[in-house]
Amino acid sequence: MSLGQQLAPHLPFLRRYGRALTGSQSEGDQYVRATLEAIVAAPEEFPRDVDPRLGLYRTFQAIWGSTHADNRAEPDDGGSDQEAIARARLSRIAPLSRQALLLTAMEGFTVEDTAYLINESTSRVDALVSDALSEIDQQTRARVLIIEDEPIIAMDIEAIVRDQGHEVTGVAVTRDEAVALAMEDRPGLVLADIQLADDSSGIDAVKDILAKFDVPVIFITAFPERLLTGERPEPTFLITKPFQRATVKAAISQALFFDQSTAPVA
């Protein structure tokens, strides 16, 4: 099997990581593109002594690190509102901590693998993850709408949300109920499944809500292929069922990290 064939299954998830890290689909994709170009230009330098996925993320990390050598975000007046929000927050939080959090909690790497990817010790990775969760949570609080038709899963998600200090505005099990709840009590974050109780679509529910107002959305689904299509727009935050509680916590923190309603005051 060629190197390209080995890496192909991991690219949608590297794109997800790039989007979550930068807060921008276009900027995240630029880093992924640069990663692939680097591999094509010098395939002999690709790490062959580790799993291909590790080697792919290691190459991405090297490129990311080369443009963020000081480990701090630089002020920048350009770019979108979302990117400006990210820069404002990043000026307060070391990106290395966020990388450690995303790699372990969202991408599912072990602490040992994450240490390899960011070139730190395992104890340092543990400390970075703890710091990231603490610092991000201090900056963000939100009212959350949950769209999920499985009662046990909905209860689990609700507990996670409340444990982080957020408030749940409601739990919807159908498209119509989700839209009605969102209009009645505007949320600051939406957590949505795709397949709902009456065979309606969580995707359509989210589209209906976003047609009324902007709100960050995290999809939690057993069918990620319905969203990771390679076409625009794709969700910045996507969690695959069955999920880990830490993954949901990390995604919530990251989604709110880039949200304008909780942005730091300049």
Automatic annotation (TrEMBL):
Query: Do you know which PROSITE patterns this protein is assigned to?
Result: RESPONSE_REGULATORY
- Locate the Response regulatory domain: which residues? 143-256
Q: Name the UniProt key words of this record, in alphabetical order.
A: Phosphoprotein
CDD domains per the UniProt record, alphabetical: REC_PhyR
Q: Does the keyword Isomerase apply?
A: no
Q: Name one Pfam family in it.
A: PhyR_sigma-like
Q: Which residues carry this modification: 4-aspartylphosphate?
A: 193
Q: Which PANTHER family match?
A: PROTEIN PILH (PTHR44591:SF20), STRESS RESPONSE REGULATOR PROTEIN 1 (PTHR44591)
- This chain belongs to the protein called Response regulator
